[in-house]
Amino acid sequence: MAKISPYAVAAAIALATNVDAFVGPSPAVKSSSLQMSAYPTSAEDILWTPSWKTGERDEVNGVLGKYCEDLYSVTRRKTRTVTCGPIKFGSDHPIVRQTMATTDTANVDASIEQIMRCADKGFDLVRITVQGKREANAAAKIRDGLFKKGYDIPLCADMHFQPVVAQLVADAVEKIRINPGNFADGRKDFEEKVYESEADYIKEREYLADAMIPLVQKCKDLNRCMRIGTNHGSLSSRVLSYYGDTPRGMVESAIEFADICRSQDFHNFVFSMKASNPLVMVQSYRLLASEMYRLDWDYPLHLGVTEAGEGEDGRMKSAVGIGTLLADGLGDTVRVSLTEDPEFEYEPCNRLSEMSEARIAATNPDAAARQAAVKKYVDTRDITAFSRRTGVLPEKTEEDKVDVSLFLNPNGSVISSVVPKMLSQDSAPYLYKELGFKTAVGMPFKDIATSDSIFMRTLPSVDDTNARTALRRMMEVGTGVIVPAEELKKNPLDNAVALMSLTEAAEANGQLPDGAIRLAIEIDGSEDDDLIAKVKDLNPMMVMIAVDPSLSQLHASRRVFEIFKANDIDAPVIHHYKTKVADSNNLALELGTKVGSLLTDGNGDGVLIEQVGENNFSVDFLRNTAFSLLQGCRMRNTKTEFVSCPSCGRTLFDLQETTAKIQDATGHLPGVTVAVMGCIVNGPGEMADADFGYVGTLPGKVDLYYGKEVVRKNIPNDDAVDALVELIKSYDMWKDKEEEEVEEGAAVAA
Q1: Is the pLDDT of residue 17 over 50?
Q2: What confidence score (pLDDT) does residue 309 get?
Q3: How many Å is the Cα radius of gyration of the chain?
Q4: Within 10 A of 483 (CB to CB), how many other CB atoms are there?
Q5: Structural contact between residues 490 and 458, judged by C-beta atoms closer than 8 angstroms
Q6: Which residues have C-beta within 8 Å of that of residue 382, sequence separation ≥ 6?
Q7: Sign of the C-alpha dihedral, residues 292, 297, 303, 307?
Q8: Closest residue by Cα to residue 31 from 160, 197, 166
Q9: pLDDT value at position 596?
Q10: What's phi and psi for 742, nearest 5 deg?
Q11: CA 531 to chain centre
C-alpha cells in the first residue's frame, strides 16, 4: 500500500472543497497521490544522487569536468525542451524573456492590467506572488481574465512556505516556482544544526519528499512546468549548517529537489541559482552546470541576479552576472530584477538576450569568425573556487618626482579619458570635479572615488601654460597621465607614463621617450605567445588590453591571462573598453557583459572607458560607471552598496519610494552595505552580506537588522529611515556628508 503523506491528505481536502474556484487552462485531474503509485512515495525509496561530501559522486559519476559546451567558442549548452503553456525553454528555442508582477495578486483587475502591459512590452512570461489560498483563487481569476482578453502569456506562481497552496494554484497557472530553502523547511531561521554524520543529514529528507511529491505528481498530471529556484539568501538552516552559505550548498539543495522530481519521472522543470552577489551567482550556476554534465542531466537554466537594485547600478550588476553566463552559452530564460516597475525590466532583459544570441557561433558567421580567429590556448580556469589575479603595483623610487604608487589602486583602478580642451583655465576646475577630485583653494586632492590616472591621446602644446599647470597639479597628488609614446616624442611631458603597443615596446626594448618615467603596454590579442611572454622582461607599470575588433574580446582576453599565468607575469592589467554606445543603460549592459565577464573570472585590475567618435557622456558619468563596474564585481567599494529587492505582491511598503529615501540618506557611506527588502521571504538571507537591513514585516511596519540579527522591531514606516540612520551611527559606521569645497583655512592647516 502506498504511503500517503499528511501534505497529500491536506491537499486532497483542499481540492475537494475549492475545485470550483479554479478555471485554469486545463481541466483538473484527480490527484494521483491518493492512488497506488509505481513511483517512490517516501524518501527512503528515492534514488538520491550520490554524495558529493563523501566523494561517492566522484567514484560513481567521475570528477567534475566542463561547465559549458565549448571554452573557445560561444555554443549554447544542449538542454531538453521544457514546455510552459505556449512557450518552450531550452537550447533549441530562443531565450525566454520574463518578469514579475508587483501588484497585490488579490487585486485581480490591477494584476491583469499590469500583466497585459508586460505582454504588450514583449515579455514571454510573468511571475506572480502566491502567499496563500486567497492569492491562489485570485490567480485562477487572473488566468481566466487574461484568456478572455485574448492574452495567453503563461503565468508562474512564486511559492514560499506553502506546499498545499502550491498544489491548489497548479490548477490555474502554467508554472510553479518553488524555493528549496523554504518550500518545506518553513520560516527562514539561522539556527545552527549539528549533524554528526551524513546519515543524520539525509534522515531529514523525509519531510522534503512528503511536501514535494504531491506537487510533482500534480504538475506531471497537468503538464505544468516547475522551476527549482535556489536563492543564496534563503538557503534552509539545514543546508547552511551542513554546507555553509556557499555555492556548493545552493547546488546540493537544488539537486535534492530535482531527485524528488526525477523519482516521479517528472522532467518538465528548470533550475535557477540566484544571488545578489554576482560572483556567487556566477560560480553557483557554473557549478550546477558542471554537475549536470557529469550526472548526464540536461535541464534548462533560468538566469537572474536577485535584488540587483535600480538604474545603471541595477543594470550593471545584472549584466555582470547574467551576461557572464550567457557569454559561455549558459542560460535559456532571463529575468532582470530591478527595483522599478516590471515593464522597465524588458529593455535590459531583451538587450542582454540579443547580445547573447549575437554571440552564438552556430547562427552568426561574424561571431564564429571572431572566435575562430583567436590563437589557440588552453583554458585552465577553476570554476569551483573564486580567486582574483592581482597585479603588482608600481613602487616609487628615490628618483621619482611624483608618487607613481598612487597611479593605480590595489582594489581596482579607474582611468579616465581626457582631451586637451578640458584643461583650459576656465575648464580645469570643472574637470577636477568630473574626475572626482576635492579642491581646496582651487587645488585638486584625491578622494575615495577619484580617477587613479588619466589617458590622453594628444597633449596640450608645451606653451599652453594653463593646461600644463593643470596636468602638473594632478600628477603632484598621485594621478598618472598616460600618453602614447609617439605623442610624447612630439610633445614631451615630464613624469608621464608612455604607452606603447607590445610590438613597439619589444622593438624599442622598453626605452622610454624623454621625460616619461614608466612604461605602459597595450595588447590587442593578435600577438603570438612568444611576444606576449616578453612582457615579463619589459616590466611595464601596467598592461592595457584593447582587443582587436576582428577577435572575440572574451576569448582573446582569456588567452592573454593564460599566457601571463604560464609565464608568471604579474603586471596589472587594465581593460581598455572602447565604445560608440549613446545610451547610458546600454553602456552599463555592454560594459557589465564584456568587461564584467572577465572580472568575474578574477582577471583584471581596472578599466578605462574611451568614447569613440561622438562624446555622448561626461567624464564624470564614465568615471562613476567604471566605479560601479568595479563595485558590482566586488572589487572596490566607493559608495554605499544597496541590495534592494525588485518588489512583488508580498511587498509591505512602497519599495521604489523607500529605496530612494534610503539612498538619499545613506548613499555617501563607502564600505557600508544596506539591504532594503519588501518582505521577509529572502530578507535575512540576502542580508547575509549586508551590514544593515530594512525589512517589511507587517503592513506599515519595518524591522531593522544588523547583519542577520533583528535589532529593532515594528518601526512605523514614517520613522524607519531615521531609525536606520541612528542604527548605523550606533555601530560607528556613519559619517556626515562632506561639503563640496574644503575651506581655505582647513586646507592650509592640512
Answers
A1: no
A2: 64
A3: 28
A4: 26
A5: no
A6: none
A7: negative
A8: 166
A9: 96
A10: -75, 135
A11: 35
The phi, psi pair for 283, rounded to 5°, reads: -65, -40
Cell numbers describing residue 166: 502550491
Rounded CA-CA distance 8/2 in Å is 12
What's the per-residue H, E or C state across 93-153?
CCCEEEEECCCCCCCHHHHHHHHHHHHHHCCCEEEEECCCHHHHHHHHHHHHHHHHCCCCC
Of 600, 597, 592, 588, residue with least CA distance to 635 = 600
Dihedral angle of Cα 405, 409, 410, 411, to the nearest 10 degrees: 170
Could you say which DSSP state residue 301 is in? Answer: B
Q: How far apart are CA 47 and CA 262, in angstroms?
A: 9
SS3 of 542, please?
Answer: strand
What is the per-residue pLDDT across 479-537, written as a single tens digit (0 to 9) for each? 999 999 999 999 999 999 999 999 999 999 999 999 999 999 999 999 999 999 999 99
CB atoms within 10 A of CB 494: 15
- Look at the alpha carbons of 482, 485, 487, 490 in this order and tell me if their dihedral is positive or negative: positive
Residue 23 has pLDDT above 90, yes or no: no
Question: Please, what is the average pLDDT of the chain?
Answer: 88
* DSSP-based three-state secondary structure for 468: helix
Give me the pLDDT at residue 162, please.
84
Distance (Å) of CA 306 to CA 237, 281, 309, 347: 20, 9, 9, 17
Residue type, 21: A
**Strand, coil or helix: what is 417?**
strand
CA distance 343 to 625: 24
Return all residues near 89 (Cβ < 8 A) that are at least 6 apart: 79, 81, 82, 83, 96, 225, 270, 300, 302, 332, 333
Q: Which residue has the higher pLDDT, 209 or 748?
A: 209
Lowest mean pLDDT among 302-316, 432-446, 713-727: 302-316
- Please give the grid coordinates belonging to residue 220: 506531471
Q: Is the pLDDT of residue 32 over 70?
A: no
In Å, how far are 472, 659, 726 from 409, measured between CA atoms?
20, 31, 32
* Average pLDDT score over residue span 407-434: 96
DSSP 478-519: T-EEEEEHHHHHHS--TTPEEEEEHHHHHHTTTPPPTT--EE
Q: Dmax over Cα atoms in the chain, in whole Å?
A: 97
CA distance 740 to 667: 15
Q: What is the pLDDT of residue 191?
A: 59
pLDDT digits (tens, 9 = 90+) for 700-748: 788 888 877 888 888 888 888 888 888 888 888 888 887 655 443 333 3
pLDDT at 246 over 60: yes
With a CB cutoff of 8 Å and minimum separation 6, the contacts of 244 are: none
Distances (CA, A) of 699 to 678, 716, 738: 10, 9, 36
pLDDT of residue 18: 40
The torsion angles phi and psi of 705, rounded to 5 degrees, stand at: -120, 150
Dihedral (Cα; 444, 445, 446, 451), 10-degree rounding: 10
Q: DSSP label at 253?
A: H
Burial code of 119-131, b = ≥16 C-beta within 10 A, e = fewer? bebebbbbbbbbb
Question: Strands 443-445 and 438-440, how do they pair?
Answer: antiparallel
| CA pair distance 721, 692, nearest whole angstrom | 12
7, 163 contact by CB (below 8 A): yes
110-166 pLDDT, tens digit per residue, is: 999 999 999 999 999 999 999 889 999 999 999 999 999 999 999 999 988 888 999
Percent of all residues in the chain with a pLDDT value above 70, rounded to a whole number:
88
Give the model's confidence band at 660: pLDDT under 50 very low, under 70 low, under 90 confident, else very high: confident
